[in-house]
Amino acid sequence: MVVRLMQGNEAVGWGAIAAGCRFYAGYPITPSTEIAEMLARELPKLGGIFIQMEDEIASLAACIGASVGGMKAMTATSGPGFSLMQEHIGYAAMAEIPCVIVNVQRLGPSTGQPTSPSQGDIMQARWGTHGDHPIIVLYPTSVPEAFDLTVTAFNMAEKYRTPVILLMDEVVAHMRERFETPPSEAIRVIDRMGTSVPPEWYKPFGDTVGDVPPMPSFGSGYRYHITGLYHDLMGYPTQRLDEINPWIERVHRKISAHLEDILLYREENTEDAKVVIVAYGITARSARHAMKIARQHRHRVGLVTLYTIWPFPEEVILRVGRTARRVVVPEMNLGQLALEVERVVGRHKVVRVNRADGTMIAPQMILDAIEGR
Amino acid sequence: MAKDDHTAYAYLRTTKKFPNIWCAGCGIGIVMGALIRAIDRIGLDKDEVAVVSGIGCSGRMPVYLDFNTMHTTHGRALAFATGLKLAQPNLKVIVVMGDGDALAIGGNHFIHAARRNIDLTAIIINNLIYGMTGGQYSPTTPLDMRASTAPYGHVEPPFPICELSIAAGATFVARSTVYHAVELDRLIEKAIRKVGFSVVEAVSYCHTTYGRLNRMGSSVEMMRMLKENSISLAAAENLKPEERATKIIRGVLHEVEKPDYLTLYQKVIEHAKAAVDGKEFLRAGPGGLE
């Protein structure tokens, strides 16, 4: 095993390579740029493609095009670029094109504070593009997890034919941490399902397996149509309700029926907890420290770290919230995921701990909330 | 010629219900026919052709065609096509756009695709207006003309599509009209054969919106205007500059030889592979490059 010091953004790049990503299109933006620089250097060594596009809209479009051409594709950005990408996140969800979008968040709104950490894009990651759509959003708390969850993001994108968003904190992106390189045989890589039916029988959105349609590449002999319009089983535009409604049900079900696979979280000391902290990203690490101190003071405090924030793991939160008297939700925003926690456990139980000034939440702020100060 | 023997039938999707969505008399179908004839003449296999479009009347063309087809978002077809071409270099990727699609919302993608010299064929169907949304002015609407959003006459000068393409770095630029259907398919054929970013401006019309708002008559009369107001490049040489400015000049306006993006990117890959064997990483994990 090789141990080295690695930066979070770099870990995302290596994770992408390990997952089989061979196409990156992006536009420079702080604090995500190291991902692009690293992949510009490494992808050509593997025969892969790095291209710097004219903006973030084009970047995600190129990724979707490459994915249709059979390559695993990724882009990385930050808040302002993420705003520009929303249109194509919707397209990828509608046309069911696998791709990974990394958003290393910075303090917004607008240009905000490019180099300061923030968790302000929680709701945008879920609802940023117009219309109801399924989405998966993963969130690492450390550099090793940035690697692991990038691999997972690709696996889920390929398995469920969906865009997957990896949200990161600037602190994790720029921090260097101990990284134990996993042996390549320990890295589980999932590729999209192909099809074996003869091309003339092929129904692009008809022959689903577990609600996911197989996806042959353009140029492979299966000619079909892809559109952002509502489409029938052949992929052609439709306005028929008996074709639109089954489609809507299927694309949401392909996520909601696989929550056991998709929802990643870690529970610590929740069995006896009277106070449960629900946290994600770098804030979960402050929360863990706060929990340890509180436990030393004989407070029964537990922690749920969410690695999948969307779909929201409501069954988990409902269960831990039933026995807890208080649920503390620390976030580097003015209360975004807290809205979901409140919806599930009830407003009276939730204590929000927020700051949105580009500064991390220190353990003491969470301790104060635990102790009801 | 028997009906079933028509060249186009072999390239149209039998699984897609016709009729098409275009207004009777529209020029887009003529461009589609020209594209099919060009592909047929080159002898491309249907599996090796991809047609990518944006949004608008022109955006609906791919669905009728039995190729690898992608109807993308407004203005972004070239960006999608760029990714597709880089992932599948053997595909002939043809991008069909309208004037608003390619030059307003997609203007940035257009100039950069040309500058990068990605091996794509861009067909811009220029009808001087946003047709599908009901006749709003576009970047090619001429001065003083009326549009539903220019009820008192248009005050913005238009983009010249071909000149813009040349300045941005396209390797092949041609123009014809939907009246000159045979010439159009010859130009599209040349554009597809050209390695590099090639542009064909297919001047069309919209009798439903633009023609009605400007009292230009039916599609037949607008078609006749294309015939009368256009001139071949060779014939235009004999005109005075002020006369030329009033005409639609048809033909190959620009052609240069230069390496396309993928050819140059292959050199990047060669340099990178020579530097370090990146496959080492996959064998040994991320630490393999230490």
Provide the fold topology:
The complex is a heterodimer of chains A (373) and B (290).
Chain A (H helix, E strand, L loop, with lengths): L2 E5 H12 L1 E6 L6 H10 L6 E4 L3 H13 L3 E6 L1 H17 L3 E7 L16 H6 L8 E3 L4 H18 L2 E7 H5 L1 E5 L44 E3 L13 H16 L2 H4 L2 E4 L6 E5 L2 H15 L4 E6 L1 E3 L3 H10 L2 E6 L5 H9 L4 E5 L8 H8 L3
Parallel strand pairs in A: 2-3, 2-4, 4-5, 5-7, 6-7, 11-12, 11-14, 14-15
Antiparallel strand pairs in A: 1-8, 6-13, 10-12
Helix pairs in contact in A: 1-2, 1-6, 3-4, 10-13, 11-12
Chain B lengths: L27 H15 L6 E5 L14 E4 L5 H11 L4 E7 H7 L1 H10 L4 E6 L2 E2 L5 E2 L23 H8 L3 E6 L3 H13 L4 E6 L3 H7 L5 H11 E3 H4 L4 H4 L3 E8 L5 H15 L3 H6 L6
Helix pairs in contact in B: 1-6, 3-4, 4-5
Portion of residues in beta strands of chain B equals 15-25%
The fraction of residues assigned to DSSP E strands of chain A is: 15-25%
Secondary-structure element order of chain A, N to C:
EHEHEHEHEHEHEHEEHHEEHEEHEHEH
- CATH architecture of the largest domain in chain B, by name, is 3-Layer(aba) Sandwich
Instruction: Give the class-level CATH name of the largest domain in chain B.
Output: Alpha Beta
CATH architectural designation of the largest domain in chain A? 3-Layer(aba) Sandwich
The first-to-last residue Cα distance of chain A is: 46 Å
Count of the domains of chain A: 2
CATH superfamily of the largest domain in chain A: Thiamin diphosphate (ThDP)-binding fold, Pyr/PP domains
Helical content of chain A stands at: 25-40%
Specify the structural class of chain A. alpha/beta
The backbone outline of chain A, from C-alpha atoms, is: globular
In percent, how helical is the residue content of chain B? 25-40%
State the low-pLDDT regions of chain B, or none: 281-285
